[in-house]
Structures are given as structure tokens and as C-alpha cells.
């Protein structure tokens, strides 16, 4: 999901993501993943960039992945050889996109946009490279000027995350995990699927009990970004479940955000505000201290500001966590 101007504007357009400051600058679940057991069969999986299957004679065991995708695989029981993309914060704590990955144990080829240690990657002897795919970009977080060189070392697979529904995207990640040896019928994975369904049910139940007007935003120094729900899969899912989300009047040309100056942040009424918590966004504490117009919003004065993640970990556990956060905010909030 994109961020402001990469020029940040182009990057924002791809990802919808204000939290992507981690691209420009350098929910936890303690359960261990189910361990996978590749069975020696041939491997085949669709690369959604080209629409063609990537085929290998055996299931690869030396896989390198974009951090967010690796986090989803980990939830299903697949561990990768190395990751690239936002993995740790400056204090060593996991980035939001790392999900439940044991970041202290990971080989990280690059932690920020433009970072990818090709020499270290080659030394790993990779068999497969997997990443997300946004329209207008190639493999997410793989430097375009070295893509050909990188893909000459191992075939790449891109999973489309900008257009499909969150259910479809999660299913694709689960399918990749299964192709790499995960047992989707394990007790842990079955419980994760049930948890996702229950989380969706909790959102629907909260809406039925107490309809509220909801605003999803990201906050940067240049202003407040109003999220356009149809272009963010977790928000689109929430709308499907009945959440009354504000739809901005004038989203940008890529249809992700409407930017409001700090003088005009009261343009839209809302009972509850969900604030993007990805790395790079201003925090609720920073906003209260630095932006009086934000502090004066009714939802802020009422303490009805909650977090959301525009780039969830696309596993059943990851999706459940995001829907649970939304359900919690709706349950706690009151009409104003």
C-alpha cells in the first residue's frame, strides 16, 4: 500500500500505504508455527505477474521472501531462509509487517526500500524468491534496477495484493504455504481459519448492535489522509460486513487517499476513527501533542481512536487480528 511522495506519490499509488515510511526509511501471537514437511513432489505455483506457473522438479526448501509474505507463511508453518523488506524498527523490535516472525533469528537482506543485498542473496543459494505484487510495480521491495540479476539466481513469484479481496489474498498465501509443504488441515491451521471467521462475525455483530460512522485515516506531517475503503482490502471487508465507513469525496488519482490539510481535518464527521499504525505514520500521542485541530475532533475528544493496519499479514491469523481490532473499536465506541 502506498505512501506520500517516492517520489512518495508513486509508492503511495502502488500500496495505498501511508505506513510505508519504512519503505523510504530504513499483534503478537506466541504460538510456534506448524512445521512443514516438503514431500519431494514437483512444485508448481502461479506467478500472478505473468499469469504463468513457476515449475520446479522438487518443492524448494531454500526460499527467500518479502517480510510480509514470509510472516504469512510462518503463520501456516513455513519458515524461509531469508527476508527482505520492513522487518525491524530502529530499536530492534519487529516491524508491524513482520507479524509473528522471530525477527532476531532472521537473515535480513534489506530492511528498507531500495535495500537488497544481492551478494548475500546469491551466497544463500536460493531456490525460489516470493514477494507481493502491486499493479505498476514488479516484485515488491526487489530493486527494479537489479531485478533481472536477482531473478537469474532463482525464479520469482509475485502474489497480487492490490486488487483481490482479503479473503482471496489470504487463500493465495495459504495455497503457497501448502505448495511449500504446510499442512492446512493441522489443528493449528484449522483453528486459524475458525478464528478468522469468528473475527468477521464479531465485526458484523458489533455493527448490528450499534451502528456507528467510522473514519479510517493515516497521519503524516503534511496532513491527514482519509482512506478510500474500496481500495484497502481490510476496509472493503469491513464494509462488506456492514461497517459504515466514510468514503472520501476527492481521493487521489490512484483512488487510495484524500489528503486534508491540518486546518481542514474536520471535513468528515465520525463517531470512531481508525488510525493507521504502520511505521512512519504519526502516532495518536504525537497528534495530540502537535495538532490541535486533530485533538478537537469529537472522536478524539471522546477517546474513540483505534488502530488499523493497511498492510495486514495475509494469513488467517493475520486477517483475524485486523478484524478483531476493528470489532473491538466498534464495540468500545459510542455514537456522538
CATH topology value of the largest domain: Rossmann fold
Q: What's the total helix number?
A: 12
Q: Briefly, what CATH class of the largest domain?
A: Alpha Beta
| Major sheet details | 6 strands, mixed
CATH architecture of the largest domain: 3-Layer(aba) Sandwich
Poorly predicted tracts of residues: 2-15, 17-35
What is the assigned CATH homologous superfamily of the largest domain? Nitrogenase molybdenum iron protein domain
Oligomer: single chain
How would you characterize the overall build of this protein?
With 336 residues, this protein is an alpha/beta fold. The strands form three sheets. Strands 7, 8, 9, 10, 11 and 12 form a six-stranded mixed beta sheet that branches. A four-stranded parallel beta sheet has the order 4-3-5-6. Helix 3 crosses helix 6 and helix 7 runs parallel beside helix 12. The longest helix is centred in the middle third of the chain and has 23 residues. The N terminus is likely disordered. InterPro entries: ABC_transptr_periplasmic_BD, Bact_iron-sidero_bind. This is ABC transporter substrate-binding protein.
Give a brief rundown of this model.
Keywords: Signal, Transport. Residues 61-336 form the Fe/B12 periplasmic-binding domain. By secondary structure, the chain is of the alpha/beta class.
Topology, pairings included?
Blueprint: H1 8-15, H2 21-24, E1 43-47, E2 52-56, E3 63-66, H3 67-76, E4 82-84, H4 118-123, E5 128-133, H5 147-153, E6 156-160, H6 166-179, H7 187-209, E7 213-220, E8 223-227, H8 233-240, E9 244-245, E10 257-260, E11 272-276, H9 284-290, H10 292-295, H11 298-301, E12 305-308, H12 316-332
Parallel strand pairs: 3-4, 3-5, 5-6, 7-9, 7-11, 11-12
Antiparallel strand pairs: 1-2, 7-8, 8-10
Helix pairs in contact: 3-6, 7-12
Amino acid at each position: 500500500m502506498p505512501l506520500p511522495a517516492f517520489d512518495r506519490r508513486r509508492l503511495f499509488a502502488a500500496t495505498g500505504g501511508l505506513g510505508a515510511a519504512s519503505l523510504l526509511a530504513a499483534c503478537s501471537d506466541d504460538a510456534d508455527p506448524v512445521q512443514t514437511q516438503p514431500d519431494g513432489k514437483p512444485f508448481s505455483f502461479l506467478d500472478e505477474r505473468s499469469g504463468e506457473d513457476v515449475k520446479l522438479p522438487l518443492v524448494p526448501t531454500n526460499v527467500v521472501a518479502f517480510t510480509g509474505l514470509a510472516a504469512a507463511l510462518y503463520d501456516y508453518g513455513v519458515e524461509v531462509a531469508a527476508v527482505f523488506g520492513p522487518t525491524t524498527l530502529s530499536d530492534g523490535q519487529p516491524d508491524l509487517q513482520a507479524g509473528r516472525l522471530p525477527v532476531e533469528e532472521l537473515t535480513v537482506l534489506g530492511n528498507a526500500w531500495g535495500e537488497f543485498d544481492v551478494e548475500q542473496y546469491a551466497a544463500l543459494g536460493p531456490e525460489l524468491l516470493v514477494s507481493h505484487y502491486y499493479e505498476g510495480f514488479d516484485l515488491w521491495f526487489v530493486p527494479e534496477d537489479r531485478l533481472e540479476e536477482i531473478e537469474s539466481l532463482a525464479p520469482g513469484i509475485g502474489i497480487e495484493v492490490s486488487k483481490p479481496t482479503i479473503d482471496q489474498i489470504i487463500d493465495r498465501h495459504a495455497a503457497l504455504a501448502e505448495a511449500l509443504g504446510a499442512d492446512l488441515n493441522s489443528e493449528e491451521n484449522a483453528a486459524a481459519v475458525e478464528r478468522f471467521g469468528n473475527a468477521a462475525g464479531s465485526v458484523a455483530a458489533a455493527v448490528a448492535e450499534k451502528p456507528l460512522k467510522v473514519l479510517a485515516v493515516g497521519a503524516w506531517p503534511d496532513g491527514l489522509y482519509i482512506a478510500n475503503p474500496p481500495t484497502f482490502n481490510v476496509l472493503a471487508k469491513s464494509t462488506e460486513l456492514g461497517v459504515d465507513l466514510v468514503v472520501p469525496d476527492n481521493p487521489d488519482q490512484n483512488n487510495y487517499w484524500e489528503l486534508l490539510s491540518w486546518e481542514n481535518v474536520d471535513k468528515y464527521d465520525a463517531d470512531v476513527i481508525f488510525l493507521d499504525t504502520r511505521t512512519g505514520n504519526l502516532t495518536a500521542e504525537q497528534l495530540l501533542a502537535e495538532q490541535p485541530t486533530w485533538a478537537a475532533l469529537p472522536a478524539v475528544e471522546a477517546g474513540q481512536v483505534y488502530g488499523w493496519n493497511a498492510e495486514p499479514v495475509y494469513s488467517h491469523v493475520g486477517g483475524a487480528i485486523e478484524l478483531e481490532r476493528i470489532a473491538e473499536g466498534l464495540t468500545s465506541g459510542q455514537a456522538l
